[in-house]
Amino acid sequence: MRVLLPASVSGSTEPLVEGVTGWLEVNGDPGDRFDVRVLPIADNQTLFTYGAQERLGGALPLLHEPLVIALPNGVVLSDNSYVNHMSARQTVFPDPGVVEAFRARSPEAARYVSMVETLGTSARRAHAVAVHALRTEAFNLVGAGAVLLLTAMAACVVHVRARAQEIFVRHISGWGFLATHRRLLSTEAVLAVGFVGWAVASTAVGPSARDDPARPGTPVTGAEPLHAAGIALASLGLTLGVLALLHRRIVREGATRC
């Protein structure tokens, strides 16, 4: 029995040996004893997971500096442990010929193997689901951006049309752009700060709400304040851009009439 340990964590060998020994006592045949040896491997190694991490909640196909437990072929796990491990869809055979030969020797096992989804099929299905989710999120993002742009344009148009003369008078009197539209921009800034503050507060109470069955809610990732800040900055940017165009138009038309 070999435990391949990166050199960067080589100081934790004793707990690992105890943990592997305890795992063998639970999953191996009663009375079996194995010599657990810890061997170092080079740092900064990566290991391809063949999609096994997907069932464990992970999303990355590679593990950085993994701890590898190498079992001797067919002499470690009990029959029940082998069945449990094989039925968990986390066993990969790089050579399909091994599976085909086993199916030819065991007709009963062949029926079970025929019902197991292959790694390629699982990967294609997961890829299709991810692409569909990406397209849906992209469509939602474009739609939300369009709504945000239209809202900013509508607010700026109403503001400028209602105060066209006042804006022109302030311009020729030497007022700056920000001073001329300070009310609208102040309102937008207050709304943006309130939105970001609400996102921060919701994220802060997210873990406690998740553990409270009386307060069901959506999962919190911790990135919600960043998303809210991005939306607020985009809204302010669109408002400033549209307001600058309308301000320039008001000034140009007022100068032409004069």
The main sheet comes to: 3 strands, mixed
**What's the total count of β strands?**
5
Regions with pLDDT < 50 over 5+ consecutive residues? none
Note the beta-strand portion. Answer: 5-15%
| Domains, number | 2
Mean pLDDT: 79
User: Helix and strand succession?
Assistant: EHEEHEEHHHHHHHHH
Radius of gyration: 31 Å
Q: Which class do the helix and strand fractions yield?
A: mainly alpha
Order of adjacent strands in the largest pleated sheet? 2-1-5
Number of helices, where a helix is a run of at least 4 consecutive DSSP H or I residues: 11
First and last CA, distance: 92 Å
Helix content: 55-70%
> Which overall shape is indicated by the principal axes computed on the Cα atoms?
elongated
Describe what this molecule looks like in 3D:
The protein has about 260 residues and is mainly alpha-helical. The chain folds into two domains: about 80 residues, no CATH class; about 130 residues, no CATH class. Helices cover about 65% and strands about 5% of the residues. It contains eleven helices and five strands, in the order βαββαββααααααααα. A three-stranded mixed beta sheet has the order 2-1-5. A two-stranded antiparallel sheet has the order 3-4. Helix 6 runs parallel beside helix 11. The radius of gyration is 31 Å and the shape is elongated. The model has no long low-confidence stretch (mean pLDDT about 80).
